[in-house]
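Appendix B, Record 12. Input sequence as logged:
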Amino acid sequence: MNYSIKAKSIITTLCMILLGALVCQGVQVVINPSLDTTLHESEPNNNMGLYTRIYSGTDGSGNKNRALLQFSLTSIPLESTIDSATLSLVINDGSTVTDSSFELHRMSETWIEGLGTGSSGSPALVGATTWDARLEGVIPSLPLAAWGEAGAESGTDYVASSTSATSVSGINTYTWTSLEDDVQFWLDNPLQNFGWILISDNEATNGSFRQFVSREDSSDVPALTVIYTAPIPEPGNYAIFISISVACIVLRLRLKVRRT
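Logged structural output:
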């Protein structure tokens, strides 16, 4: 009967569509930071959480700076596989300077962005992050939580080996690649998502200082671009859906034949 041939064609098409939906590959999302701030050695008890720039590197007076960034991954389905991840940061003002490499290290401890403003920050409120304190106390000399050492300690406050590094000079957009392992770790262990710390590998040299646009600016904000493969749904749910869909198609075609 003609309805049988037509039904088979529709059923085959439906099954192919549904089976193709089982694996959702190559989905891209762009995520802006949920938190960012600067550890500023020249003002060790100040917080810079709401400033429009984040600093990294050593200034002309020998004071070190380190930037912290954290990204929420709630837009990525749990149990997804992270295929690639890259971070883009922008320098949109300042003079051209000698190239310096900047490294991203995965943070091992929690920190708080804070409400400090201005190019040197402002006195930290209780609980905010500063150069001297991971979580500032009522009295600066008695923090609620201390860094392993001032400015965050390698191997204690952040992973000693860098995840990615890139050379940075003047005004431009800079990209750190091969971040998928860190993002996968955070997706699988959300309670350990403390973000990255950005450190110049030339901190011993004055003038490696850079100002990157922070999330508080109106444009050119940091962006984490992630490509992921979503998890395969439970096959039982799809099997039920396919069975019901097929039954409905066959029933409708049979009714149509009877009417004719």
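The mean pLDDT is 88.
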